[in-house]
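Suppose a classmate hands you a notebook page containing two proteins, each written out with its sequence and a corresponding row of structure tokens. How would you begin to make sense of it? This section walks through that situation. The first entry is reproduced here exactly as it would appear on such a page.
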Amino acid sequence: MNTKAGRGRPKKDLKEFQNRNEQILDAARLMFASRGFADTDVEELASELGIGKGTIYRAFPSKQELFFATVDRSLEQMAGFIKAEVAAQQVEGLQKIQTAVKAFLHFFDANPAVIELFIQERAVFSGQGHSSFWEHCRKNSARWETFFSDLMAQGFIRKSDPRWLADTLNQLLYGQLFLHRMDGSQQSLKSKSNDILTIFFVGILTKEALRNSQALGIDLGGLANE
């Protein structure tokens, strides 16, 4: 019986191809962050990795595409890190917000180069009206809107536009990244999490949830009773 030859890249080769692309993106992230977009040289990057420049260009046809692929992969890693932290702590409801915020800031403590990429993206490509971070937020907005709507139905947070809540929290977090990088703070980003959470929770929680914040596992630094 005749069988058709399988098409496409063999699984082993595909895995090697994916691993090599990840190595390229990891190295590119550090080079873009340390040198800036304009001074990053793809040929030097290839030499650093011990591969040909053509290998990089076959996967990423231009330096701009390489840059955006680097940012996108960083955001995927961020999302995976947050998801793993939430799963590991087995939290739900308000504690899920608390854990996610702390994990978000912890990720950028460990990966400050990603903040540099965000800064460069706004500086170099501002005319394109593109923001990888906000595109990532938009892709995940429906899930967070449902989450906030459920908390409203349970009486934990005040009735309001769930999309506005998600956008506001993202703005607080995104802004903190830039402020932290610009002021040269020696404190960790994660140490700022309670400040952000207190502002957010005091603004959105119902009176009953504020009174019961400790029982709900939420630390508001004593503001719940003021």
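The notebook's second entry, a different protein, reads as follows.
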Amino acid sequence: MIFRAVVSLVLGCSLGSSLAGICAAHDFSRSESRVEVHGREVRVALSLNLLELGGAGNNNVDTNGDGVISYDELDHAIDRIYALIKQHYVLGEIIGQPGPPAAPIRVTLTHYGISMGHVLDAQLLYVFPAGVTQLSVTSTLDQIMQHPIGQPRHQHLISVRFDGEPRESVLDAAHPTAVFFSSGASSWKTFASFVRLGIEHIFTGYDHLAFLVGLLIVATTLGSMIKVVTSFTVAHSLTLALATFNLVNIPVRLTESLIALSIGYVAAENLLGVSTTHRYRITFLFGLIHGFGFSNVLREMQLSRSHLALSLFSFNTGVEIGQIVFVLIAFPLILYLTRSRWQRQITSAVSVAILALATYWFVRRAFLI
């Protein structure tokens, strides 16, 4: 009986993910760069978490282990860090001929600093032989970035501007290279890239998946499931747009803590046997909170307003695709398990596990980071 309940939690909540990944929720590794192209010169503002710098070469910068990178530690390690950046963050000009993109004739680290005690803010200048109209960017930073809690995924968010016109993309181990053009021909690539980011955000956002499982575990009919999911979708889409356009701004710590509390509340309702007839109403309220959580990804990229609508629409499309796929997989399984003779035990076991995870996430987000 207990074994079957545990199996249901693993299949329904994590879809095969490891426990460490579940506890990590959205805390997967991320770096970003903002690229400005002006003729022959390409200026890059690159940010990455130095506490995550620890790939195969053991490139630890925090020598005293206090979780803060001092300027002395950074100065001591900057040559090594700069060499790694040049190796794993590569720009090239596409000149319409066979072979790899042409390399810049000069790369210079013009400035570096520290923000938030551990984030490297580096300014780089790339100079090409002629004016750049097509730029290739390859990031293999995933090979040298290692999340401290063991989550291996690393994404690099990039925004490229040709004379003020923005282009965005997301690079990772599966898609390390993006090509940007001076014309608007890359809109489809931007759309596809942000749809993929939205899908990945759902399937690596274990807190959102736990919230959905907490809702679905007591939605015993297709109609109730559709009401709940639609309510959640409408609500998070609304606040995702408001937050991304900076019409409403809530601190990240507060947003992530409230998300954890919403998950715990749903699990507690399940355990207390509260009527779920009108659960879509409370789901709408909590969906508003989760929308702010979704918006953090786009806001971190500092996208321009002229290109924000496409990025927002495509990212939200990806979120919805990921959510629908998860529900289509999880709901039949949950329905089968909860209609068995162990229905009460399974619901209780899953809800207790979700409540425990929510408590951990709340404490961690509210007090530890």
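A careful reader of the second entry would note: The first strand starts at residue 29 and ends at 38.
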